[in-house]
Amino acid sequence: MPTNNLKPKVPSEGGPELEDIVEKAEQALSEMEGDYEVLVSEEITGIGELLHTAKGDSTKAADSIKEIHVIGHNIKGQAATFSYPLLSMAAKSLCHFIQENAEAAGERLDLIEVHVNTMRIIIAQKIKGDGGKEGQGLITALEEAVGKILAKD
Questions:
Q1: Which pLDDT does position 12 carry in this prediction?
Q2: In contact, 85 and 130? CB cutoff 8 Å
Q3: What number is the average pLDDT over the span 79-104?
Q4: pLDDT reading at 1 higher than 90
Q5: Structure pTM?
Q6: Closest Cα partner for 50 from 68, 74, 62?
Q7: In Å, what is the CA distance from 131 to each residue of 73, 94, 102?
Q8: Which of 67, 72, 74 is nearest to 50 (CA)?
Q9: Whole-angstrom distance, CA of residue 71 vs CA of residue 50
Q10: Which of 30, 37, 72, 97 has its CA at 20 to 30 Å from residue 152's CA atom?
Q11: Cβ distance 78 to 37 under 8 Å?
Q12: How many CA atoms lie within 13 A of 138 on its CB side?
């Protein structure tokens, strides 16, 4: 068994309390929240630009959709951390659509646009949490639309 060279360097007593560490982490996340809203707005704008490219140039559509998926995946992973689980669910639906059938996504750019507009609304109105009954209705509608299109293939 290899020797443990780290153990003698770590004090067995003292150091910050767990509650202090958690409090500092929560404070840092709170301070970053405003920055996140700006960042995610820029990312959503980027998706909109990629969507515009895909609509205008069919030779660039596949690459644009791949990049939309990457950005959507990032939003999906980050949004809940910053109190936007509804945004995370909208991004998850978008990613699911593209991942399951990128060709169908390329043919139904209107559904990608609905996802983008939903995400814009969530951030513009700062809808945190699950969005209540209306928010869940939005997500259900997105998921049902995706399901119908994917079922056709």
A1: 66
A2: yes
A3: 95
A4: no
A5: 0.81
A6: 68
A7: 20, 18, 28
A8: 67
A9: 10
A10: 72
A11: no
A12: 24
Q: Are 74 and 119 in contact (CB under 8 A)?
A: no
Could you give phi then psi for residue 83, rounded to 5 degrees? 70, 30
Report the alpha-carbon distance of residue 66 to residue 95 in Å, rounded: 10
SS (H, E, C) the chain: CCCCCCHHHCCCCCCCCHHHHHHHHHHHHHHHHHHHHHHHHHHHHHHHHHHHHHHHCCCCHHHHHHHHHHHHHHHHHHHHHHCCHHHHHHHHHHHHHHHHCHHHHHHCHHHHHHHHHHHHHHHHCCCCCCCHHHHHHHHHHHHHHHHHHHHHC
Instruction: Report the C-alpha gap between 108 and 89 in whole angstroms.
Output: 20
Question: How many whole angstroms separate alpha carbon 89 and alpha carbon 143?
Answer: 9
Token pair in block for residue 60: 């660039």
- Considering only CA atoms, which of 91, 94, 96, 99 is closest in space to residue 122? 91
Beta-carbon count within 10 A of 88 CB: 20
